Amino acid sequence: MGKSMALADFTKQLDALATEAVRAFDSAATAEALEGARVEFLGAKQGRLKAAQKGMGTIDKSDRPAAGKRFNEVKEQIESAFKAASERLAAAPVAAVKQGPQFDPTVPGTPFRIGRLHPITQTVEELKDIMGRLGFSVADGPEVEDEWHNFEALNIPREHPARDPLDNFYLATAAAATGGKTGLLRSQTSTVQIRVMEQAPPPVRIICLGRVYRPDTADATHYPMFHQMEGLLIDTQVTMADLKSVLRLFATSYLGRDVHIRFRPSFFPFTEPSVEADFHWDGQWIEFGGAGMVDPNVLKAVGYDPEKYIGFAFGLGVERLCMRRHGITDIREFYKNDVRFLHQF
Amino acid sequence: MLVSWKWLQDYVSLPMSPDELVERLSMAGLNYEDRKAVGDDLQVDLEVTSNRPDCLGHIGVAREVSVLWQTELRSPPPQPAEAGPPVTELTKVAIECPHLCFRYTARVLQGVRIGPSPHWLADRLATIGIPAINNVVDVTNYVMMECGQPLHAFDFAKLAGPQIIVREARPGELFEAINHKTYPLEPGMCVIADAQRAVALGGVMGGADTEVSDATADVLIEAADFAPLSIRTTARKLTLHSPSSYRFERSVDPVGVDWASRRCCELILQLGGGRLAQGVIAVGQGTPIREPIVLRLSQLPRVLGIEIPAEEVQRILTALGCQPAAQDTRSVTVVPPSWRRDLTREIDLVEEVARVYGYERIPEDVGVPMAPSHRSHEDRVLGKVRQVLLCAGFDEAITASVVPEELAAVFSPWTEAPPLQTSTPMLKGADRLRQSLIPSLLEARRVNESLGNPVIELFETARVFLPVQGDLPGEQGTLGIVSGGDYYHVKGVIEAVLAALRPGTPLEALDTRQPLLDAVKSSELRVQGRPLGYLGELSAAGLQQAGLRSSATVAELSLPVLVDLANLIPKYAEQSPYPAIERDLNLIVDESVRWASLAETVGQSVGECLERVRYQEIYRDPKKDGAGKKRLLFSITLRSRQRTLTNEEADQIRQQVVAACHQAHGAVLLGA
């Protein structure tokens, strides 16, 4: 049978505990010290407050409500002292309270290298994206072409100057080795138009993008290999007003604000009428590329009836667009592949 | 085409400012290039497209002005007085090569006083950059720049014999041109010859022997029409381009030939006197008869998207020189003028009407019908492949498709056929269609190394060209990778690509021997039994050959194989709700045991509870394990679809694995 404890003794004991606990929490200089004090005073199993609480069972029944009340007051006092100490330590700068090796948040993060897409590819992807939203799907064709697809079907007859051997990369292979076909590196992406139209009936609404080849001496604005985007729309009712409107939608999408389109007459064998399209930007007219209504001879060449079907085509140089956008002044930079250049974009 | 502002006013009035003129001309097809003051005149440079040789003379440009401003065109009707003997008594002309020379006319002037041209003529030529020589030569140049028809004047006395022969050049024939350079001619070129030698390279340049000099008294005036393609080829072969060849290459007006001849004689008589022989010698084809062209008025809105009034259509075509042949409410029929060979079809007339009426009248805001578009599977796969490579720290390169022979020979894993060759090199010495991207990427790496760039991780997606007997080459989309990392680094990247396209696809590595690559650290790669490509570290010799200082690893993969295996729309698979349990293993095996075969044994011995086998490392401790042994450290992750596996079950499976590996590979568990 335990000895009963007087209320006064219990209270005195509690007050001493409170004083000690509050001093311990207030003086804790580190999180570790505070945690030690917390375990000592507030520990759920072995804590001194818990032990003190057990003493309540020995108090005379009549005094218990008063003892309980006092206990709760002391408990709150100790807990709030702990809370205050925790907040004080959390708010204090680490360096001020910690000794030894210190964390330096100004050191750079762990290096993580992300590669870059070539600026030409970035431009190509954007063009595909914009034209995709305008309902043009991407079509593809070979880079080594025969004369039918590169010239004949595009209304460029044998005696046309564009077929001059000096102006094209013909394959040196004997004709027999290619089944009598004279192969050449395509000089324009319009070849893909022919291939698409040969394989499917109208309507046709495509773009083709890719490498084209022309024997130019490499300088700041010329390179014998470059990229073109070509668009083609064939249907029963297509006009030059549609062409102008599509180019305007395209240019407005690409530049991010409303632009105007201007046509200047030009000459291409595969379109009639043929125009140079310009867009008005920053107060001046900028050359966009060639365009026009698909020549009836081209439609006939692929077996479309030009009385029934009609359409437009347009083409532009990807390098020129990319150079203008990024302020690149020498086309040869694209093909040097200096990683410092690539990482600019 | 250089135009003199003052000269142009001979044919059309110019009430507008030069700014207005060039702006309107640009919008109608004569693109404005530049202008500058010359003396008290203005030189205007206009770009003439190759289909419009009629604008290679002042009258042609004036005609455009007259059409656009709806003013009168004044073209002089040349009527030279013929006071000499009949020309047929003086000379004869024979065309022996009608395929090279379509028509040839000759007129003869006797007793001409050769001297300097008057100021008005010299100044006009000076405005457009043509130096004055003497009155006869200047007149030929003047008339060419007036109407676009080139002319030539021979010193008649210097011709050997009275007859002009137009013939093909003979093999090895030499010709000294007016510029006093001698050119070796060949068949296919057209020469104007007398009884002894070539006296002019037809349509390109006159000869030094017969040029008009101060001593000349009698001149023969040539006005002819030469085959465009032959002129072009000749000029290019000899690198001898002249204002004359420029015009013949683009065709001249067949009717204008005689006009120019008469105009030339008229001016010579005016400036140098003398007597013009009666008549003309004209041989060759007659002038072609032009077929009428019907323009249905309904075609204008069909093509242009706008209506143009019928009377406006008629006015434009007539002003351009077309002869009205018929008209009804629905169509206009015209015969095009001789100087417009580019007009043969209805669509050609549509373009003429449109450009004169004005493209600015075509609206730019019509409602184009919507249409769906789709991105191809190939394109999506390529996008994913690029994404993985970018995340792996690789930069995309774009290199030339045509490479020098020595580069093409360096590495060609896809074919043994020799690379295709272009007849003209693309860049210096580069005339082979590449069969691999690796040599180009190694070259890019070398350039970067020489610039001292520390991290050079490159990839490219492009086509390689694989010869096919009897057809155009096969074009294989290819992914090339060149890295400063080792074999395993690049292999990890390739595995990440596969994981992005179809998770769980095993990459098989087979022994291979490739030039450039290390004999051991190189593999042929396969997926699902199909050849995917090649991977390997460069050998010491390979590095030296590529001119590289630091080690490099290359890989080349077939994009079509990746495209085929890619599963871009995976199907949902239910996951087991039970937890996984992992067991580590450390097996001692012979050096010759390869991970792939051991892993296969592991997989078979675990059975259906296997979630994955994870390779950790290879460790060697010859002191403890003996020579020729290695430890393979790996873990197995186990999970049941039916229940939670117990530790005892996991241990049991681990025992099975050890036993199976022992049996199949002689593996011994470390510490066992």
Detail the topology: elements first, then pairings.
The complex is a heterodimer of chains A (345) and B (672).
Chain A (H helix, E strand, L loop, with lengths): L6 H21 L3 H12 L5 H7 L9 H28 L2 H4 L21 H15 L3 E3 L4 E3 H4 L18 E2 L12 E3 L4 H10 L4 E10 L11 E11 L4 H16 L4 E9 L2 E11 L2 E11 L1 H6 L8 E8 H9 L12 H4 L3
Parallel strand pairs in A: 1-5
Antiparallel strand pairs in A: 2-4, 3-4, 5-6, 6-10, 7-8, 8-9, 9-10
Helix pairs in contact in A: 1-2, 1-4, 2-4, 6-11
Chain B lengths: L1 E3 H4 L9 H11 L2 E8 L2 E7 L10 H12 L12 E5 L5 E4 L5 E10 L8 H9 L7 H13 L3 E5 L7 E6 L5 E3 L5 E3 L5 E4 L4 E4 L3 E2 L12 E8 L1 H11 L4 H7 L6 H17 L2 E4 L2 E4 L8 E4 L2 H6 L5 H10 L3 E5 L3 E5 L10 H12 L19 H15 L3 E2 L5 E3 H6 L19 E4 L4 H13 L7 E9 L7 E10 L3 H15 L5 E5 L5 E11 L2 E9 L1 H7 L6 E6 H7 L15 E10 L4 H12 L3 E10 L2 H4 L3 E10 L8 H19 L2 E2 L3
Structure description:
The complex is a heterodimer of chains A (345) and B (672). By secondary structure, chain A is an alpha+beta fold. Chain A is 39% helix and 21% strand. In chain A, α1 packs antiparallel against α2 (31-42), α1 runs parallel beside α4 (64-91) and α2 packs antiparallel against α4. Chain B has 5 domains: 2-69, Phenylalanyl-tRNA Synthetase, Chain B, domain 1 (2-Layer Sandwich); 82-284, Phenylalanyl-trna Synthetase, Chain B, domain 3 (Phenylalanyl-tRNA Synthetase, Chain B, domain 3, 3-Layer(bba) Sandwich), CATH 3.50.40; 293-358, Phenylalanyl-tRNA Synthetase, Chain B, domain 1; 377-565, BirA Bifunctional Protein, domain 2; 581-669, 2-Layer Sandwich (Alpha-Beta Plaits). In chain B, 31% of the residues lie in helices and 28% in strands. Chain B contains 20 helices and 32 strands. Chain B has a 7-stranded mixed beta sheet with strand order 20-23-24-28-27-26-25. In chain B, strands 4, 6, 7, 14, 15 and 16 form a 6-stranded mixed beta sheet that branches. Chain B is elongated and about 125 Å long. The interface between A and B is large, with 86 and 89 residues.
